[in-house]
Amino acid sequence: MKNIIKASVLSANLTKTMLYSLEYRAIHLLSKSFSLFVKPPHRENRKELIDYLRNKVIEIHKMDAENIVEGIYPVSVIYPKASIDHMKNFPKLLLDSLRISRRRKLNVKDDMKGQEIGDAPEYLNRNYHFQTDGYFSDDSAKLYEHQVEILFSGTAAPMRRKLIQKIKETQGFSRPLRILEIGAGVGTATIDFSQSFKYSSYIVSDVSYQYLEAAKKRLKGKFEFVRAKAEDLPFKDGEFDLVFSVYLFHELPRSVREKVIQETYRVLKTNGVMAICDSIQKDDDPFLNQVLEAFPLDYHEPFYKDYTLWNPITSMQMSGFKDIRFDHQLLSKYWTAVKE
Ligand SMILES: C[S@@+](CC[C@H](N)C(=O)[O-])C[C@H]1O[C@@H](n2cnc3c(N)ncnc32)[C@H](O)[C@@H]1O
């Protein structure tokens, strides 16, 4: 039975990878046909690297299947999260890919047209990934998750989920948890995490009103939504058992990353866990160093290079964390640490 489940999960995941890879191809072809006006996203053509990545993609899908049969998370995490929206959004996404490619060509990072960013920090007032409206419009929130999965060829979801495994290896929580998710975006990891942990409260937070609104519309269940800057959390000391983030740290200036670690320590209970999933860093997989160098130029990421060179362990230790563990797979890295 276990083998049948594993094979089914693997084939469902590989189907998603094929679909998203085809969509990437469509975006690339469209941009190429307008290449006088726009710069298409980079398309890897080194056979050695493509073969290497293909094997790594199969490995992560196998890991996902293994985690499901081992009960680390339920099989429902692989159910499609928004098939109708996916189809409805694809034409918009194609059109938007041309705007993004135009910004890439002209290296325009401040095309924010007076977006409502409220009191969000100034470093966020830009077109991250060259995306239209940065993190600050309903349209951007609608397309975001689909764009991420196209970029990662359908592996973003299993890469995010691996953090659940890492948390469970760190702390065998038996009671219902108080969970805080920071930089939650439109709540994609939230869906999987909320099915994998028992919780008494789950706060979904992000600095973008628009992304948080999109998460609110999407998430069914017992969640609270709090607009918050990760570096200045509006919570009391020692409130949470688990504070986690996915793909937040590489977007932040170094001093802010360090503040986020300190704030996380402050709001955790003793023996609470901080968990981070983000990009791999330089030399985690030397074969992929070139990919890490190309990425921030192709998808405007102002703090990414510094992030790839940053050692967070010192900062975690200085904040007081113990039992610091890390691991990486494919393009993601995982840290867990426990509050002393
Ligand atoms: C790359 S997205 C990741 C979103 C989500 N965690 C995911 O896995 O898709 C980064 C998110 O962090 C949010 N963000 C950026 N800087 C932040 C900050 N200082 N405090 C809180 N959220 C922040 C952005 O609004 C965005 O939703």
Question: What does this entry look like structurally?
Answer:
- It is a single chain.
- The chain has eleven helices and seven strands.
- The protein is of the alpha/beta class and 340 residues long.
- The chain folds into two domains: 2-151, no CATH class; 156-339, 3-Layer(aba) Sandwich (Rossmann fold).
- Helix 1 (2-33) packs across helix 3 (83-106), helix 4 (138-151) packs across helix 7 (209-218) and helix 5 crosses helix 6 (188-194).
- It starts with a helix and ends with a strand.
- Bound molecules: S-adenosylmethionine (SAM).
- Residues 121, 124, 135, 148, 160, 182-185, 188-189, 206-208, 211, 229-231, 246-248, 251-252 line the site of S-adenosylmethionine.
What is the correct CATH architecture of the largest domain?
Answer: 3-Layer(aba) Sandwich
What proportion of the residues form beta strands (DSSP E)?
15-25%
Report the order of strands and helices.
HHHHHEHEHEEHEHHHEE
The first-to-last residue Cα distance is: 42 Å
- Average pLDDT number: 95
CATH superfamily of the largest domain: Vaccinia Virus protein VP39
Strand order of the largest sheet: 3-2-1-4-5-7-6
Q: Which descriptor suits the 3D outline? A: globular
Which molecules are bound in this entry? S-adenosylmethionine
Strand segment count: 7
- What's the domain count? 2
